[in-house]
Amino acid sequence: MTHDNDASAWFGDAQRLVQLRECDDWDLVLGNGPVVATAIHDGHRMRRSLLPHLAIDEADRRRDEDPFTGMLTSVGDVRLCVRNSRFQVDLNRPRDKALSTDPADTWGIRFWKGPLPEDERALSLSAHDRFYAMMTALVDALVARWGCVLLLDIHSYNHRRDGADADPADPAGNPDIELGVTTLDTSRWGDTARRFADALRQAPVAGRAPDVRNNVRYPTGGHFPEWVYAKWGDRVCTISPEYKKIHMDEWTGQLDIAALEDFRDGLEHAVAAVRGGFLP
After folding, report:
1. Are 154 and 264 a contacting pair, CB within 8 Å?
2. How many Cβ atoms are within 10 Å of 152's Cβ, its own excluded?
3. Are 120 and 207 a contacting pair, CB within 8 Å?
4. Distance CA 197, CA 147 (A)
5. pLDDT number for residue 4
6. What percent of the chain has pLDDT over 90?
7. Which residues contact 273 (CB under 8 A, 6 or more apart)?
8. Rounded to 5 degrees, what angle do the CA atoms 183, 188, 189 make?
9. Where are the domains of the chain?
10. φ, ψ dihedrals at 256, nearest 5°
11. What is the phi/psi pair of residue 210, to 5°?
12. Which of 119, 160, 230, 259 has its CA 20 to 30 A from that of 176?
């Protein structure tokens, strides 16, 4: 029997990486190259047995997910989009915080009515274990093949939390694109990060040059890039683009397709600008 935490069971490598097993928790596309793009907060699906425990409606839950970020993963050779909501299990948090019912862990918002049954917690945390087992196998295989990897950990963030009719948050602390590079080894990848950011600035969004800065809103980063750095060090260059939701109305969910395409075009331009540094 195959176990979820058996990392070697996930992939095989003949002339190119192939999947040995699939998982309903995510969509994974394996191309032949060193660029990995993930959207681990893109999903909205919630296990039916969890719905009675939710303290918010579907629209409020969606507001604090990262819809449409999966479309930006098209820039990767390897593309991963998680299907389940971050509130079913948050893959960007350590295991003991991945299914928190404490509003202090969720921006002061009460997402859950109270503590969850232990069997529900176990089901969600098993998905956390599967994800990290799979990513261990995936990155091990890619590092073995390419020597080093560019990992794009793609997210989006709200800037109108005061309400649909209120002023948006001050742009001084809310760049159009924040690049999380808290774990990036600057001695090896500092120039790569600079060229990546410069390329993003050269690609207009909604007719203007985007404001691109590092580590402004999230100066401490997330668990996923920290885990990657702890395991692979400077062999993986992790950049976490956080897109301000100027490509959508965060209260209605309505998408501005042109702005999202601008974001994607800019990300493609940035990847092209640095790809050569990841090829043998």
Report:
1. no
2. 24
3. no
4. 23
5. 67
6. 86
7. 195, 196, 198, 199
8. 60
9. 8-278
10. -95, 95
11. -75, 150
12. 230
Query: Averaged over 137-150, what is the pLDDT?
Result: 96
| Angle in degrees, 0-180, between the axes of helices 223-232 and 118-146, rounded to the nearest 10 | 40
pTM of the model: 0.93
Q: How far apart are CA 121 and CA 95, in angstroms?
A: 11
pLDDT in tens, 24-58: 999 999 999 999 999 999 999 999 999 999 999 99
The Cα–Cα gap between 53 and 214 comes to: 37
Q: Is 8-278 assigned to CATH 3.30.1330.20?
A: no
The Cβ of residue 93 has, within 10 Å, a number of other Cβ atoms equal to 17
Query: In this structure, what token pair is assigned to residue 73?
Result: 């993963």
203-215 burial code (b ≥16 CB/10 A, e <16): bebeeeebbbebb
Q: Do 46 and 61 form a contact (C-beta atoms < 8 A)?
A: yes
Q: How many other CB atoms sit within 10 Å of the CB of residue 200?
A: 23
DSSP letter for each residue of the chain: ---TT-GGGSEEESSSEEES---TTEEEEE-SSSEEEEETT---B--GGGGGGBSS-HHHHHHTS-TTHHHHGGGSSEEEEE-B-TTT--TTS-GGGTT---GGGTTT---BSSPPPHHHHHHHHHHHHHHHHHHHHHHHHHHHHHSSEEEEE-EEE-S-TT-TTSPPPPGGG--SEEEE-TT--HHHHHHHHHHHHHHHHTS-BTTB---EEESSS-TT--HHHHHHHHHHGGGEEEEEEEEESTTB-TTT--B-HHHHHHHHHHHHHHHHHHGGGG--
Among candidates 111, 99, 19, 91, which has minimal Cα distance to 240?
A: 91
Res 29: pLDDT:
95
